[in-house]
Amino acid sequence: MKEIHCYSFELEIDSNIDLVFECLNKDEHVLKWNSQIIENIYDGSENDLEEGSTFITRQKIGKKVYELQGLYTKYNPPYQAKVETETKEGVSKTEYILEETSEGTKFIVNVYLVPSSWIYKVMTNMFKWSFKHVYDEQFNNFKEYVYQIEYERDK
């Protein structure tokens, strides 16, 4: 089935690209700004991530805890990471793109779903507007967290 673009987010972060990527990809940071992720369990070490690396992510959405198998389909620090997870609804693809700018870092996120059935295709198209509420909050938290870490490191 064809993938559906469900969400996009873009902002400028007045910070160095390496710090932005570190806060986006290292669990010591991610667990502080992303309220949905409980833990990530890597096949190997988190420090050895590369394209093809797999992991299990435990996430709490609402009152339910989900355990999902993740796969890095792209991993090009500090410029890009793309992760896929498979659920009964289909394959979720989240892509992070970072670009150096004169002001700091341009941060772009795109989320896609390849529905597993026509029912999930219809449901995704009907409710993809709701992704914005959940993801905007997380990525605005991310931005504030990057600034907090930068401030603490500059002390």
From TrEMBL:
<dbReference type="Pfam" id="PF08327">
    <property type="entry name" value="AHSA1"/>
</dbReference>
<comment type="similarity">
    <text>Belongs to the AHA1 family.</text>
</comment>
<dbReference type="InterPro" id="IPR023393">
    <property type="entry name" value="START-like_dom_sf"/>
</dbReference>
<dbReference type="InterPro" id="IPR013538">
    <property type="entry name" value="ASHA1/2-like_C"/>
</dbReference>
<feature type="domain" description="Activator of Hsp90 ATPase homologue 1/2-like C-terminal">
    <location>
        <begin position="16"/>
        <end position="133"/>
    </location>
</feature>
<protein>
    <submittedName>
        <fullName>Uncharacterized protein YndB with AHSA1/START domain</fullName>
    </submittedName>
</protein>
